[in-house]
Design brief:
The structure holds 2 protein chains of 2 kinds.
Chain A: E1 7-13, H1 17-26, E2 33-36, E3 53-54, H2 65-84, E4 88-89, E5 93-97, H3 103-116, E6 122-125, H4 126-132, E7 142-146, E8 150-152, H5 154-167, E9 171-173, E10 178-184, E11 187-192, E12 195-204, H6 210-215, E13 224-234, E14 245-248, E15 258-261, E16 267-270, E17 274-275, H7 286-299, E18 308-319, E19 325-328, E20 335-339, H8 345-364, H9 387-396, E21 403-405, E22 410-411, H10 412-420, H11 428-435, H12 448-459
Parallel strand pairs in A: 1-2, 1-12, 2-9, 5-14, 12-20
Antiparallel strand pairs in A: 3-8, 4-8, 5-7, 6-7, 10-11, 11-12, 13-16, 13-17, 13-18, 14-15, 15-16, 19-20, 21-22
Chain B: E1 2-10, H1 14-25, E2 31-34, E3 50-52, E4 61-62, H2 63-76, E5 80-82, E6 85-90, E7 95-100, E8 104-115, E9 119-121, H3 124-127, E10 137-139, H4 140-148, E11 157-161, H5 165-176, E12 180-186, H6 195-202, E13 209-211, E14 213-219, E15 226-231, E16 244-247, E17 250-253, E18 257-259, H7 262-266, E19 291-293, H8 304-322, E20 332-337, E21 341-345, E22 348-350, E23 357-364, E24 368-376, E25 381-390, E26 396-401, E27 412-417
Parallel strand pairs in B: 1-2, 1-8, 2-5, 8-19, 10-17, 11-12, 11-17, 12-13, 20-27
Antiparallel strand pairs in B: 3-4, 6-7, 7-8, 9-18, 14-15, 15-16, 20-22, 21-23, 23-26, 24-25, 24-27
The chains are: A alpha+beta, B alpha/beta.
The structure holds flavin-adenine dinucleotide (2 copies).
One flavin-adenine dinucleotide is lined by residues 13-19, 36-39, 44-47, 50-53, 55, 177-178, 205-207, 209, 213, 229, 271, 314-316, 341-347 of chain A.
Amino acid sequence: MIKNDNRFDVAVIGAGVIGCAVARELTRFTGSVLVLEREGDVCEGTSKANSAIIHGGFDAKPGTLKAKFNVLGNSMMDRISEELDVPFSRIGALVACLSEDDLPKLEELKARGEENGVEGLVILSREEALRLEPGLSDGVYAALFCPSSGIVCPFELTLGFAENAARNGADFRFSHEATAIRREGDGFEITAGGEEFFARAVVNCAGVFADRVRGTVAERDYRITPRRGEYMLLDKRAGNTVSHTVFGVPSKFGKGVLVTPTVHGNLMVGPTAEDIPDPEDTATTAAGLAKVRTMSALTVRGIPYKQVITSFAGLRAHGDAHDFVIREDAEIKGFFEAACIESPGLSSAPAIASHVAKMVKERLALSERADFDPIRRGIPKVASMSDADRARLIKERPEYGQIICRCETVSEGEILDAIRRPLGARTLDGVKRRTRAGMGRCQAGFCSPKVIAILSRELGVPYGEVKKNG
Amino acid sequence: MAENVKLAIIGGGPAGMAAAIAAREAGVGDIVILERDSELGGILNQCIHNGFGLHTFKEELTGPEYAARYIDRVLGLGIRYETGTMVLSVSENKEITTVSRARGLLVYKADAVILAMGCRERPRGALNIPGTRPQGIYTAGAAQKLVNCDGFIPGREVVILGSGDIGLIMARRMTLEGARVRLVAELMPYSGGLKRNIVQCLDDYGIPLKLSHTVVDIKGKKRLEGVTVAEVDGTGTPVPGTEEYVECDTLLLSCGLIPENELSLTAGVELNPVTNGPFVNDRLETNVPGVFACGNVLHVHDLVDFVSEEAGRAGVAAAKYLSGDGGEAGRILDIVPGAGVRYTVPSTVDAGRCDEAIHVRFRVRDVYRSCSVRVAAKDREIMVKKRRIIVPSEMEDVILKRSALEGVEGPITVEIVGV
Ligand SMILES: Cc1cc2nc3c(=O)[nH]c(=O)nc-3n(C[C@H](O)[C@H](O)[C@H](O)COP(=O)(O)OP(=O)(O)OC[C@H]3O[C@@H](n4cnc5c(N)ncnc54)[C@H](O)[C@@H]3O)c2cc1C
Ligand SMILES: Cc1cc2nc3c(=O)[nH]c(=O)nc-3n(C[C@H](O)[C@H](O)[C@H](O)COP(=O)(O)OP(=O)(O)OC[C@H]3O[C@@H](n4cnc5c(N)ncnc54)[C@H](O)[C@@H]3O)c2cc1C
């Protein structure tokens, strides 16, 4: 017998940006929502390691789901970032080509973008492009400019969806890997984390694992290949090397290496594209990082690689049909999927989620809730507030005057908030993604002993049990 | 509303304290030391090993004991200090924005500022070591804090990358705590730490030091499982075929310190790309008049005794500046690094109004044997000093006499000759 606490209307598998966005959209409707996540926190998969670009939508082939959801998702981002208190900035993107021969590629991208409904695309000569972006390398011949392209904080976006979903009643269970899904009556039985759950509908948002999750309940009609992308992240001092996202002309290996400022003012360079067998292998490689360096130099000059503070890698869930799989299963009614969500998945998340939630609503005959609250407030950030706001906050809550992370100016108050808020942090990485403590130039050398002490105290566990990640 | 203060000192480590003491003794009444930690003492508080103060006190003290001597004098002289106070920014007109739990947001308006913020450790990312990013990788200083201040031993099987002094000290410390230190790998063909630390911290415990070696891969998804160590050639490139996998649960990084100058930048202070510290003149004053720098924020020192001495001079110089005793600028000569020398501190000297004795500190590029340190102006040799051996890990200090600068033509070059 399945416990009553473990019976839900909908179970979402995976707490990446897609699963969390779907969960949030589902809480607009009547019906209980469960989120099962194999890791100890939200945003432990691909959603934590990507380029963080809200793409314009000129890259995807017209008529594909990628094209449709990207353009729609992009247009929803202003409201989402407002509602969920997520840093987002439309800085615009340039696609640089290196010779006259490549000009047709830009023309093609522009035409594609226009067909997809992307507005404001223009092709700029070298001189025009340089006026916009003086950091372009000497080899740049011309560039496509996309004003609607933006940058976002992927952690805050995922957390924003998740916390708002939780606030509206979604039940998150971490360290609960869904290992089996069985059709049972008018719903599904799910084995996860040593427990049994029942849900009337299931939404598979398991990222690079989605084909395996599908495999437990249906025939695997798509295959996912993890495609690794490696990055280097540079100190904030290098953040103004460029002021737009600069891409090289796309090739058959994706969008190529890009150079972009991040929403927090660092410079990010990457990714590579390499198919690998292991869906958990996010190791960086000497060859990959070397490639990032050489490729980036083609489009942007003078990247100060001496100022690299960290490197990392993420895995794209590349599907063999080269498009997103977003559907209710044709045979197994109530089994929904948002799978093969490779780039531009982050950009598409709001649109995918809204679409999937509506399908679920129809299937389960749910109705709108009057009490859905779309607003989520982030953690107040001492680093970015005005002196007057700082003074007021510290007077009220002195712990915001105790700085724990020197590089990013993160206070004890912020770290406590990160731990105590719904779906709070349980690990060093959890604190880091929520507050930026440890993300700066010293990479947690200074603050990790202090954050370990706070986590140990707050969670009531000894030092040795405070983990880097869950 | 800003609070006025004559001299603000940022950082309450050995540099900040020595500067404050010297400034007070030179007559500055209104001083405040701003320190983000809960206590004065800086990095010394976590250095519980002995070996501090041999030059200053002719005794071997532990870090906290050495700090305590200065803390006592700060207290004895009634110098004001604010702990738990983080300086967020310093403006060009010396407005210092701070936050603290106790007093909230507070802005000081200072007439003179001494920068004494110390340094930070170079993290893994800056070293570009590929591989996974599991639990178990620490900078040596962070591990030192965990072990010595928090009583937490981060692991049992340890590899140390980099032979900086903190790494060497931690090799011994971890061994004493029952961990097994498998090896210390050093990229360069020579050690980055003091000779005495190699003997006392590695040799005495049979820990191998592998020169010209580095870590080329890191394994382990959640928890560190092991690292691959390989030999490097003369350019620092790993030599294929020399890889060796070493199982470990902890990797400590001791690969250099970087002066912590983010605040200096907000104040408009110009930095030397070689030291990552400010360019200063012989009074340890930066390009911003009335802003001085000393200790590890200026350039990384190996011995605290030299930090204290240098900081004392900064304190005296700030006092002179405040009393208007600077006088007109005289004859400014550049001091430049020549053959075999990476940098010099200071980088200019005012031959017209400098002290009787001018300290010029520098580090060499490589290990040199039976050579000479030569200081020469454009038109004449000022000094030559024979040396049996001179190494990059030990800071050098030569003293020039004011009289020797009379009438010389700049620039003054410091170089290694006869190698
Ligand atoms: C290199 C790179 C660059 C990118 N750049 C961009 C970009 O600039 N712009 C953009 O729009 N998109 C970009 N993307 C794509 C974007 O990052 C992804 O589309 C998005 O993050 C996918 O989110 P997700 O929720 O599907 O996957 P994930 O974030 O991986 O989430 C899936 C979750 O499911 C969990 N899970 C898996 N199996 C189970 C199970 N059996 N039970 C329970 N939980 C399970 C996982 O632990 C994980 O937390 C990029 C991707 C990569 C790799
Ligand atoms: C781990 C280690 C081991 C060492 N071992 C030896 C040894 O065995 N023998 C020896 O002689 N020397 C040793 N040294 C060297 C010596 O201790 C240092 O050179 C000396 O401590 C440097 O002094 P400092 O005041 O410049 O820097 P620090 O001691 O680092 O002090 C700087 C202070 O400034 C404060 N600060 C920085 N930024 C701010 C801000 N924004 N707002 C407020 N406060 C701020 C910091 O909290 C710190 O207290 C060692 C150094 C280290 C790091």
